[in-house]
Amino acid sequence: MSVVDLTRNGDCAVLTLNRPEALNALSFAIIRDIGAAFDEVAEMEGVRALLIIGAGEKSFCAGADIKELRNRPLMDQLRGAELGQSVFARLDTLPVPSVALVNGYAFGGGSELALACTFRLASENAVFGLPEIKLGLIPGYGGTQRLPRLIGEGRALEIIMTGRNVKADEAERIGLVNAVVEGDLMQAGLEFAGKFTRYSLPALGFARSAVQRAADLPLAEGLRVEAELSTLAYRTQDAEEGMAAFEEKRKPEFKDG
Length: 257
Description:
Elements: E1 4-9, E2 12-17, H1 28-43, E3 49-54, E4 59-61, H2 66-69, H3 74-93, E5 98-102, E6 105-107, H4 109-116, E7 119-123, E8 127-129, H5 143-151, H6 153-162, E9 165-167, H7 168-173, E10 179-181, H8 185-193, H9 201-214, H10 219-234, H11 237-247
Parallel strand pairs: 2-3, 3-5, 4-6, 5-7, 6-8, 7-10
Antiparallel strand pairs: 1-2, 8-9
């Protein structure tokens, strides 16, 4: 089994970070493997969601391998940040939504990977953190950008600038995670994904794009984006099927067209 293990569970692809002896920490090679796995998911027939989890019960992902980050030329440091950012950003354009299943520690790059996912579920022992400030650094794989978009600038700055940990109950309260799960996290993830996998993938994609693009726009321009994408949605066969099914009082049969 490789460090980045990609499997299938029904209509969900499951990416497992399989390095529990190192708390599933990220190296640059592992980040590249994650990117390759995302590309593979994009080509998998019949997949309607991606679940990401860490092997073992202690850690989702403990972040970057600090030893690998030391004593590197300045341009290599820049390329490393750009690598992490570009790989995690692929989740924004993946044809299917993604769900981070955060079991245990999600520190540094681990939190940033979870933040890049469409949704986040946490086990009761989950702990989030961006502790880079304690090393004289700041997050480099998207944390300073995605966290404030998710929970607001004030809370995000406090978490980033203190480097403190955020436990599961607080994470749920401030909107960092969608839910805290008691029991089997993978089963909960499959059930959560089942809430949207029955819908049209094009429509789901339009919805994600409308929300994501609006985050960088004034309200008036965001509304224009929404109008354009909602209009495109009307042109799909799935929209015709959905509206016909509503009128005929039956369940729609979406075909992703």
